[in-house]
Design goal:
single chain, 2 strands, 2 domains
């Protein structure tokens, strides 16, 4: 995998303090922990080790330790790639599409606890006009 020109950690290290001055009050403990881990990932702050050839003993340089946070894009890149490849193997040979819709704010607690039921109701509602009738062409087919 080639290193991108700029990484999330580079942005956090360059502008993170200014960002935190403005928005830290809205961060949860877990968000702050992830933010700090990403900013320290593969830097001297986490220590490092010498890279040495096991055959000849040649020292190739110092590698800094990673944060191993599940939130870190650098540390989880390979795991993410393996997951994506596994998901692609399970896809059917057909077209897919992504649907986004909004629900009234008052239904958010219901959606948090009964996601499947709310989703079924919302999808059914997309095919019903304001009078409650359906046309044959609008009814989804399975």
């Amino acid at each position: 995998m080639t290193r991108p020109a700029i990484e999330v950690a580079d942005i956090i290290r360059a502008h993170g303090n200014r960002f935190l001055e403005r928005y830290q009050s809205g961060f949860s403990y877990q968000q702050m922990k992830a933010f700090r881990a990403i900013s320290r990932c593969r830097t001297a702050a986490l220590g490092g080790h010498l890279d040495v050839c096991h055959d000849c003993g040649y020292q190739t340089g110092i590698s800094y330790n990673s944060c191993r946070s599940r939130c870190c894009p650098k540390c989880q890149a390979q795991a993410r790639q393996r997951w994506l490849e596994a998901q692609e193997r399970d896809l059917l040979n057909t077209g897919y599409f992504h649907v986004v819709f909004t629900v009234p704010h008052e239904l958010n607690p219901l959606g948090a606890h009964h996601t499947g039921g709310l989703l079924r109701l919302a999808v059914r509602g997309q095919f019903t006009d304001s009078a409650g009738s359906r046309s044959r062409s609008e009814i989804p087919r399975r």
